[in-house]
TrEMBL record:
PROSITE patterns: MOSC. One of its GO terms (molecular function) is molybdenum ion binding. This is MOSC domain-containing protein. The lineage of its organism: Bacteria, Bacillati, Actinomycetota, Actinomycetes, Micrococcales. Gene3D superfamilies: PK beta-barrel domain-like. Residues 19-169 form the MOSC domain. SUPFAM superfamilies: PK beta-barrel domain-like. PANTHER family: METAL-SULFUR CLUSTER BIOSYNTHESIS PROTEINS YUAD-RELATED, MOSC DOMAIN-CONTAINING PROTEIN.
């Protein structure tokens, strides 16, 4: 298995679906990715901001596992880092199955805490018709698995760049599963 690491980082000052890949990003504790449209103490995602404009920003940073790109490529979708709007693309981390409040140490100083699963939206289909449906897996028991990455808040700021190591710190038990945020 691949050692947990950062594959790519991205940010965009404007609210667009995909984010351009950068050489590095700076995470700011309690606020988000410096220079990103979702930076702030209160919710910055357009849909959520209309509904609850003063809610805390529990979606400061979006992480996506690079392994998903290979999975969807097998179905004919060409997806690369930043395309799904993520700030940090990882390898070697089973993001979707980590418990709530897991802390990820990114690089030398940055620490983030997982707040939940990202719910895929219809804008994903701009990358290819049917991609959104591909990012929602329905199981025989009726359960739904969302594959569009995870959201987190920044506990300790720092610079994050491709090639940085990731260290996983699980929360105290009992563990709670990630739910959509």
């Amino acid at each position: 298995m691949t050692e947990p690491s950062v594959v790519a980082v991205a940010r965009d000052a404007r609210h667009r679906f995909s984010k351009p890949v950068q050489h590095e990003i700076t995470l700011v504790a309690g606020l988000g990715v410096e220079g990103d449209a979702h930076f702030g103490e209160t919710v910055q995602h357009r849909y959520d901001k209309r509904r609850t404009p003063n809610a805390p920003n529990n979606k400061q940073v979006h992480l996506m596992h690079a392994e998903l790109f290979d999975e969807v490529a097998a179905d004919g979708f060409d997806v690369a880092p930043g395309d799904l709007g993520e700030n940090v693309t990882t390898a070697g981390v089973d993001l979707l199955h980590l418990p709530l409040r897991t802390r990820l140490h990114l690089g030398e100083t940055a620490v983030i805490e997982l707040t939940g699963l990202r719910s895929p939206c219809t804008k994903i289909d701009a990358l290819g018709a049917g991609l959104m449906k591909r990012l929602i897996r329905r199981h025989d028991d009726g359960s739904v698995e969302r594959l569009a990455g995870v959201m987190a808040v920044i506990v300790t700021g720092g610079r994050v760049a491709p090639g940085d190591d990731i260290r996983i710190e699980l929360p105290a038990e009992p563990h709670e599963p990630l739910e959509p945020v």
